Every structure is written in structure tokens, then in C-alpha cells.
């Protein structure tokens, strides 16, 4: 199983801290999984200009092809101006409309205030659904008060991240089994 964790911002540290912890938990619980981190702050990604994702070069090509090869994706995103960061939206724009078909996508969100929890419901989930993702319905919302010196300090958040990892893997295994059974019905 290929799992890709995306740290969906090119500034700040909280989302990266949260996604690092999440992928560490995934590696511990599922050592056979192929787990990759894509921290968008570490790549030079060009703006989408309408080409197919495989026609880009360099970091843009690597990031999009890594996402397309994944079975499961864990998206970490901060909330900026009550929305997702432009760099994350650009990733969605670089990918085809059915990029997440047969992929499970889960989310964790960092925000300075609890007032922004609906951003996931009103913006991120609709984008993922449009792109055909199998969405893990529960997500982890992490507030600024849950961090201290680049460490997550809220045990409830840590428990919810562990559950998110489990739900992501179980849903991926379930959908893979269903898809394989359906494909086995065809006699060619």
C-alpha cells in the first residue's frame, strides 16, 4: 500500500509537525506500507497552465506523479483566510478531475481558531469529492492551543490522529478488496 502524506503549505510549521507525527504513527502501525512525505514547502512547483500532469518537469512532475501513484493520501493543511492555501489548491489544479478515483483521502487541519472548522466541510471535502476521492469522513482539526514549541501537546489530538491513520488504512484495504472482487467478475 502506497500512502502519501502532504504538508499542504509553504509557510509555517504546525501543519508539518502534525503530518510528521501522523506519518510516524503510520510507519509504526503499518511497517509494510510504502509511506512518502510531500512537504510542499520543499518543492518548486509551477502554477497550473492546463497541461496534463505528466507533461510538467522537475518538482511539479515528481509531486503530481507521486500523488497519482498513491493508494491513500493524508492531506495536512492550515487554514489561511478561511480557506486552503494557494499552493494546495494549485496541486489540485495540476491534477486531472478524476485524480483521486480509487484513492482514499483523509485530512488533518491546523488553524488558529475553532471558528474555521467548517472550511473542511465547505471547501476541501467538495473539491475531493469532485475529484472522485473516497473520503475518510472524520478529520482531525488541530488548534493553535494544541501546540507548544513545535510539539503537539493535546493527548486527544494525538489519539484522533492515530484513529485517522487506522481509518485511512482500513478504508483503503476495504476498497481495494471490493475493487479486486469486482474486477474478478470479468472473464478477460
UniProtKB/TrEMBL annotation:
Keywords tagged on the record: Flavoprotein, FMN, Oxidoreductase
Keyword field contains Oxidoreductase: yes
SUPFAM superfamilies tied to this protein: Flavoproteins (SSF52218)
Lineage of the species this protein comes from: Bacteria, Bacillati, Bacillota, Bacilli, Bacillales
Protein name (record): NAD(P)H-dependent oxidoreductase
Single GO term (MF): oxidoreductase activity
Organism: Metabacillus sediminilitoris
Domain NADPH-dependent FMN reductase-like: 1-143
UniProt keyword Flavoprotein, yes or no: yes
Amino acid at each position: 500500500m502506497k500512502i502519501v502524506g502532504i504538508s499542504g503549505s509553504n509557510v509555517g510549521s504546525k501543519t508539518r509537525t502534525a503530518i510528521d507525527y501522523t506519518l510516524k504513527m503510520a510507519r509504526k502501525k503499518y511497517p509494510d506500507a510504502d509511506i512518502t512525505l510531500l512537504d510542499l514547502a520543499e518543492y518548486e512547483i509551477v502554477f497550473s497552465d492546463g497541461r496534463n500532469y505528466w507533461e510538467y518537469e522537475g518538482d511539479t512532475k515528481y509531486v503530481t506523479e507521486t500523488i497519482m501513484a498513491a493508494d491513500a493520501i493524508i492531506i495536512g493543511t492550515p487554514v489561511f483566510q478561511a480557506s486552503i492555501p494557494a499552493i494546495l489548491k494549485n496541486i489540485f489544479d495540476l491534477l486531472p478531475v478524476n485524480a483521486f478515483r480509487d484513492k482514499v483521502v483523509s485530512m488533518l487541519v491546523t488553524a488558529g481558531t475553532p471558528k474555521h472548522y467548517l472550511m473542511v466541510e465547505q471547501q476541501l471535502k467538495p473539491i475531493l469529492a469532485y475529484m472522485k476521492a473516497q473520503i475518510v469522513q472524520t478529520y482531525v482539526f488541530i488548534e493553535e492551543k494544541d501546540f507548544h514549541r513545535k510539539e503537539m501537546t493535546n493527548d486527544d489530538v494525538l489519539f484522533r490522529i492515530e484513529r485517522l491513520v487506522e481509518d485511512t488504512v482500513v478504508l483503503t484495504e476495504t476498497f481495494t478488496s471490493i475493487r479486486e472482487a469486482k474486477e474478478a467478475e470479468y472473464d478477460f
